[in-house]
Design brief:
heterodimer; A: 300 residues; mainly alpha; ABC transporter involved in vitamin B12 uptake, BtuC; two-stranded antiparallel ribbon; 2 strands; 72% helix; 3% strand; B: 438 residues; alpha/beta; Rossmann fold; 2 domains; 17 helices; 45% helix
């Protein structure tokens, strides 16, 4: 396989993972107008929850049907969204709606720090492993290289997530209501829209996507403290490139970051980190609001 | 089980704090300030197992008669050992403040600490300023004593150069053909230094070997798919990594799933500590070190230190349900060294609790035995230790369900550490002058 194709495949795999993580961040910003730094913690909790749930699944005799572990992965993300979504949105964030955006960033940063310690209290500092789902799909031979089938499943999951979010927002009644709230929450409320419920739903969806990113990543890593900060930084780069609040922007941003990073690792490995932020800087030079964000009316 | 262990560690730390209290230390007690990672990424790999080992050893010393001679006497020279434990997380600035607290408020008699090289570089000037006897027990950077000298500071573990010199020597002794090699190391000081040491050693031992690529993913990257593709494409004869903790586990999980270990020989400078977690997911045939004759290599060694090693090994396994890897061994060699120094100082001063000055004088140039071998404070005017090292090959024992280290080769301290008066980088560049290999 020539170098170009290798870069493309590696870039797509990384971009698929990155999109799942980033789209939740951009969704929450689009609807709630909150830059949720705790998104990284939700990702890490998703990883821990899936490690625990998949471990419990195999401990309960899941070896008889190992593919059931994929259901456990998704279930873990659902659980995180159901438990933490209402707790954070109804219990804390709603008190800060309409306040200064900087204050909201500080509040979610505080949540991020609290959740980091909560994870240590619940799961400790030792690593958790769930290898089984990673190797279940076998290997895929592309040219002289082997790839793990699971990596392509993550790409498929990213496509499904992207389509689901886009179709829900643009092709359903619920989506139209959400878009109305984004444009003007007050007018929407006077028209009978239950805005708090929309906010809660959007935040839970964002939490689910963050946790899903962590849950899908758990089988390929050791789940240890410190997962969140690394993820949130690169996810921010993606949504800033694409434009805060834009789902297509998150997809394009993830592709740009994924492919440019892959090219750098193969061609100029010293610039692996630099290239991500270089791409971001170039985009911001010409489109300070990001590639897909509109300056007046935000749309996701 | 993992949560219980954390609770036990935290409980012990709180107990230590409670026992210590604010009062000045008494002459019948010796108070040790211990600083190691109890949270953060280094906690699971180094900090917690090190302190688990340290706490266990202090308990055994305080009981007396639990260890083979010459360590069978109670405490330090009959004094009961107390401890105060501080989390190393938070960065060098915080650690300097914590160090001052330990010395000035807690009035500890000695400080044993620091995994992070950054902390090891930041604390020694303060230790000398406060004239506080301090042992650096774990960190690897050679710069601590190569760029400075300190009166009250000692490092009881060899610096990290020997890890990679040993790997290169191991390859040569096994006649491993290395036409080319590549590296994947964490993008911070330890990873960069380790790669520089490895390439420096390889240039001397395999001068014709070509470096295919040097990858430095960011610390805590987790995802190595692209890097593994690059390594698979380049097809180097071997891949070197000094990754540790979650980064090493992630790299091995993803790399072995894609057959990297079948295409290239994987060599790990400090890889033993992930064996308990990975079990049979750690592939056979990996060449790895443990930053000293630590863990499985120490257990397999036998010889004069077998009784001491087995005593600590069995006690650790019984207490924590897992065998000790490299970190507890380095904590043990620090505490055995401290006990030896205290008792030597007391022998010289008529049996009273030694002052910091007396401790420093006793520690300078000291030699003692530990489960990791004979420790000699041979460098930096008696302030920097050298110690033997070992490299082995992983092999899963299916019958017993455990990972073993086979074909272990032991290197004497003077074979893999630079001699007095030359910096590690110069020693490598000049072809190991003065190396004494058997």
């Amino acid at each position: 396989m020539d170098l170009l194709a290798t870069i493309l495949v590696d870039g797509l795999i990384y971009a698929g993972w990155l999109f799942i993580v980033s789209v939740g961040l951009t969704l929450v910003f689009g609807v709630l107008n909150i830059l949720n730094i705790a998104h990284g913690s939700l990702y890490a909790i998703g990883a821990y929850a899936s490690a625990s749930l998949v471990g419990a699944y195999f401990a309960a005799g899941g070896n008889a049907f190992p593919f059931g572990s994929y259901i456990a992965l998704i279930l873990a993300a659902v659980l995180v969204a159901i438990v933490l979504g209402p707790l954070l949105e109804r219990g804390l964030l709603r008190y800060f709606y309409g306040r200064d955006e900087v204050l909201n960033v500080l509040v979610t940063y505080a949540v991020f720090l609290i959740l980091e310690d909560v994870m240590k209290l619940i799961w400790g500092v030792n690593p958790y492993f769930v290898y089984e789902p990673y190797t279940l799909l076998g290997n895929v031979e592309i040219g002289p290289l082997f790839y793990v089938g699971y990596d392509f499943a993550v790409i498929a999951a990213a496509i499904i997530v992207g389509l689901a979010v886009w179709l829900t927002l643009n092709r359903t009644r619920m989506g139209k209501v959400v878009l109305a709230v984004i444009h003007d929450a007050e007018i929407s409320q006077t028209m009978g829209v239950n805005v708090p419920r929309i906010y809660l739903g959007a935040f839970m969806a964002g939490a689910f996507l963050a946790a899903l990113g962590g849950a899908l990543t758990a089988p390929m890593i050791s789940v240890t403290p410190g997962l969140g900060p690394n993820v949130i930084i690169v996810a921010f780069a993606v949504v800033i490139i694409g434009g805060l609040g834009s789902v297509p922007g998150a997809a394009i941003g993830a592709l740009m970051v994924g492919i440019s990073r892959a090219a750098s690792v193969h061609l100029v490995p010293e610039a692996e980190l630099f290239i991500i932020y270089f791409v971001m800087a170039i985009v911001l030079m010409f489109r300070p609001e990001g590639l897909f964000a509109k300056t007046q009316a935000r749309k996701i | 089980m993992m949560t219980n262990k954390l609770k036990a560690t935290a409980g012990a730390a709180l107990l230590g704090l409670g026992l210590a209290g604010p009062a000045a230390a008494q002459d019948d007690t010796f108070k040790v300030g211990v600083i190691t990672f109890l949270s953060g990424q280094a906690a699971e790999s180094f900090g917690v197992p090190a302190w688990n080992g340290g706490k266990l050893l202090i308990e055994m010393m305080n009981e007396g008669g639990k260890l083979p001679a010459p360590y069978d006497t109670k405490g330090f020279g009959g004094m009961n050992i107390e401890f105060v434990v501080v989390d190393e997380a938070g960065g060098a600035t915080k650690q300097v403040q914590e160090f001052r607290n330990l010395v000035q408020r807690e009035e500890v008699d000695a400080v044993v600490g620091y995994v992070s090289s950054g902390d090891c570089l930041a604390v020694p000037p303060v230790a000398d300023e406060l004239k506080a006897f301090t042992i650096l027990y774990d960190c690897g950077t050679p710069r601590v004593f190569e760029d400075n000298s300190f009166e009250y500071v000692f490092r009881t573990a060899a610096h990290a150069t020997m890890d990679n010199v040993s790997l290169a020597r191991y390859l040569k002794s096994r006649d491993f053909d290395v036409p080319s090699y590549a590296g994947l190391n964490q993008d911070y000081a330890f990873g960069q230094d380790s790669w520089a040491d490895f390439t420096g050693a390889m240039e001397q031992i395999y001068p014709d070997a070509e470096v295919k690529t040097a990858l430095f993913p960011k610390f805590g990257a987790g995802q190595y798919g692209t890097e593994i593709s690059a390594l698979l494409r380049e097809r180097p004869a071997l891949v070197h990594s000094s990754n540790w903790g979650g980064d090493l586990q992630g790299f091995l999980i993803q790399g072995t799933a894609r057959g990297l270990h079948e295409r290239s020989q994987i060599v790990l400078a400090a890889g033993d500590h992930v064996i308990p977690q990975l079990g049979n997911k750690m592939p056979d045939g990996i060449f790895l070190g443990a930053r000293g004759v630590n863990g499985l290599a120490a257990h397999a060694r036998g010889g004069e230190l077998k009784e001491l090693t087995d005593t600590m090994w069995d006690a650790y396994e019984a207490e924590y349900g897992v065998f000790p890897v490299q970190a507890p061994f380095r904590m043990w060699q620090a505490l055995f060294g401290l006990k030896t120094a205290v008792e030597k100082a007391m022998a010289d001063n008529g049996g009273t609790k030694p002052t910091d000055e007396e401790l420093a004088a006793a520690m300078k140039g000291l030699t003692w035995d530990a489960p990791s071998g004979r420790i000699e404070m041979a460098l930096a005017d008696g302030h920097q230790a050298i110690q033997p090292n070992a490299i082995g090959t992983t092999k899963w024992n299916e019958a017993e369900g455990k990972m073993e280290l086979v074909d272990v080769e032991y290197f004497s301290a003077r074979c893999v550490n630079p001699p007095v008066g030359i910096k590690a980088t110069e020693w490598l560049a000049q072809g190991f002058p003065g190396a004494e290999c058997e």
